[in-house]
Write a structure and sequence with these properties.
By secondary structure, the protein is mainly α. It has a domain of 54 residues. Helices cover 49% and strands 0% of the residues. Helix 2 crosses helix 3.
Amino acid sequence: MKIPKFKSYEEEAKWWDSHDLTEIEGLKPVEKDVFIKPRKQIVSIRLERSLVEVLKRLAAHKGVGHTTLVRMWVIEKLREMARK
């Protein structure tokens, strides 16, 4: 059996609810490790409250969280330094 083209998410959901994955031709098992996110490590830094407030305002302006912004900056700087 092959997976048909669907006209809507609802149609697709009904189809999957009534079919077994083992019935699909050419479907190969996926290694379980494919879905495991890479392990990350927490790094803490201490900043003055006033700097954290500035950081939060900058992050809000960009539409991201302040920890995300710091992570983006660190990654950017590390890539820049690696190129040198």
